[in-house]
């Protein structure tokens, strides 16, 4: 009901009013009674569309999550690890996403940079990490990484046998294959601006190691 009228009656009444008006009167009538309503409806519609798009983007399947530590990755490198990786898997960006933190820097003058990164590692935020020596030592100290000797398939293990970097775990004293030195790969030479060695580490939850392994295979095939 609108002003005591049904919707049909209201529409008919408005048609009659407008039929008795000239062009200028119709414009003035619209501005006075309907313009604000139309603007409000337009804003509501835009917000609704934005909300639906945002929900859709957040509901996309996360294919892999990576982080680049103390190492400068070019824009092309970020594209290679992001959209290009999805394309290589023939996956749509509409339903899938790749997350990459390209600028994790551990600064001795900023203790919080270590605290934040430690918290991220503790909550299994990354499937893989690309890092320098300093970053690798910190990751090993926290023991938030996979033993690649127990994770790599036989073919890949043989391919990178001379590139494995072994480190001792502080708590158990066990020596593990903590990383792969990817400094000499086409990926590192083309996309990383660094004079230091570059290492690839698999981290995160054990049941999600395959995501990091797939990224390693992708990088080695570059």
List the helices and strands and how they pair.
Layout (H helix, E strand, L loop, with lengths): L6 H13 L3 H11 L1 H24 L2 E9 L2 E2 L1 H7 L1 H6 L7 E9 L6 H12 L5 E4 L1 H10 L11 H6 L4 E5 L6 E7 L4 H6 E2 L5 E4 L6 H12 L2
Parallel strand pairs: 1-3, 1-4
Antiparallel strand pairs: 2-7, 4-8, 5-6, 6-8
Account of the 3D structure:
- There is one protein chain.
- The chain has 222 residues and is α/β, with parallel strands linked by helices.
- Helices cover 48% and strands 19% of the residues.
- It contains 10 helices and 8 strands.
- The protein has helices at 7-19, 23-33, 35-58, 75-81, 83-88, 111-122, 133-142, 154-159, 186-191, 209-220, and strands at residues 61-69, 72-73, 96-104, 128-131, 164-168, 175-181, 192-193, 199-202.
- A 6-stranded mixed β-sheet has the order 3-1-4-8-6-5. Strands 2-7 form a two-stranded antiparallel sheet.
- It is elongated.
- The model has no long low-confidence stretch (mean pLDDT 87).
């Amino acid at each position: 009901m609108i002003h005591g009228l049904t919707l049909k009656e209201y529409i008919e009444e408005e048609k009659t009013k407008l039929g008795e008006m000239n062009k200028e009167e119709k414009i003035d009538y619209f501005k006075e009674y309907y313009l604000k309503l139309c603007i409000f409806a337009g804003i509501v519609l835009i917000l609704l569309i934005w909300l639906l798009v945002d929900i859709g983007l957040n509901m996309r399947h996360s294919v892999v999550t990576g982080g680049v530590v103390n190492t400068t990755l070019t824009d092309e490198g970020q594209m290679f690890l992001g959209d290009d990786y999805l394309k290589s898997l023939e996956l749509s960006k509409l339903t899938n996403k790749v997350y990459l933190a390209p600028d994790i820097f551990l600064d001795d003058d900023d203790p919080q940079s270590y605290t934040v990164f430690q918290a991220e590692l503790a909550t299994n935020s990354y499937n893989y990490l690309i890092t320098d020596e300093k970053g690798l030592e910190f990751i090993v100290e926290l023991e938030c990484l996979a033993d690649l000797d127990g994770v790599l398939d036989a073919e890949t293990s043989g391919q990178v046998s001379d590139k494995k970097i072994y480190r001792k775990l502080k708590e158990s004293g066990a020596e593990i294959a903590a990383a792969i030195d990817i400094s000499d790969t086409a990926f590192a030479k083309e996309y990383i601006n660094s004079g230091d060695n570059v290492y690839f580490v698999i981290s995160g939850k054990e049941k999600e190691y395959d995501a990091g392994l797939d990224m390693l295979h992708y990088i080695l095939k570059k």
